[in-house]
Design a protein that fits this description.
CATH class: Alpha Beta
Largest sheet: 7 strands, parallel
Helix content: 40-55%
Strand content: 5-15%
Structural class: alpha/beta
Number of strands: 7
Number of helices: 9
């Protein structure tokens, strides 16, 4: 039985990962920035009450992430896997249309949050002698560019570089590192990007219906791989180039509508 800590796990794919780990018999510590949402998530997982715990905290604050690690370890013992999942999206607007506050908030969560979580988990795991740290990829991780997603892509591109660089610097530590690429998952974060009624949103909905997946399908794959990996550095990818090509070729046979009211 392993102990997994997941930041930003009160909803979306973070919650889905937590539930999947619990279904497989492991212990999970949830994290969210709002106590109310954390309580709601714990209530939804009530049947696993003996193996699930929650700690509220802001990923943009290093001390908060250190408290998360130590509180989780005090409750369930050694932290085997730490997943830096917390992230927010951006409205599909050009950079000059975003106000400074929105830019700072996105970078604070998506980049600084990953840095803080990685450092806090690494320091704690060094004392344990082992552990695995996974950071979430997203659009931009591979350098792709989509208009209206510039800041989100910038944050994920930086996370990709940071993860590889940190792992290289810590290569003699005995701690394992990895990146998790979930592809396009139908969560609140994705739905927020197409919430405004417009022709642009209509096009994106068609694109998502073709290439996106539900949380259950993606988390089953990701959790299995995260538990199984033994490599010093592992990249776990759900929506591979091969899958994208097949879905583009046979899209007419993949009749789904995630946005039907």
């Amino acid at each position: 039985m392993k102990h997994i800590v997941i930041t930003g796990s009160t909803r979306g794919i973070g919650f889905g990962l937590a539930e999947r780990f619990l279904q497989k018999g492991h212990r999970v510590t949830l994290n969210g920035s709002h106590q109310e949402r954390l309580d709601e998530a714990l209530c939804r997982l009530n049947k696993y009450s003996e193996r699930v715990y929650g700690v509220a905290g802001d990923v943009a604050d290093r001390e908060s992430m250190e408290r998360l690690f130590h509180s989780a370890a005090s409750r369930f013992g050694k932290v085997d896997i730490w997943v830096n999942n917390a992230g927010i999206g951006q409205p599909q607007k050009r950079l000059w249309e975003l106000d400074e506050r929105a830019v700072k908030e996105l970078l604070a969560v998506n980049l600084l949050g990953v840095i803080n979580g990685t450092v806090a988990a690494f320091n704690g795991m060094k004392l344990q002698g082992s552990g695995r740290i996974f950071n979430m990829e997203g659009h931009g991780s591979k350098g792709s560019i989509i208009d209206g997603m510039s800041m989100y892509g910038t944050s994920k591109s930086a996370v990709h570089y940071f993860t590889r660089a940190f792992a290289h610097e810590a290569r003699k530590s005995g701690i394992q590192f990895g990146e998790v690429s979930p592809g396009m998952v139908i969560t609140g974060l994705l739905l927020d990007t197409v919430s405004e009624p417009s022709e642009e949103s209509r096009k994106w909905k068609g694109f998502y219906n073709l290439l996106a997946d539900d949380v259950d399908s993606v988390t089953e794959f990701l959790v299995k791989r995260m538990l199984a990996t033994t490599r010093t550095y592992e990249r776990i990818e759900w929506l591979t180039k091969r899958k994208v090509l097949l879905r583009l070729l046979f899209g007419l046979f993949r009749r789904r509508d995630f946005f039907a009211s």
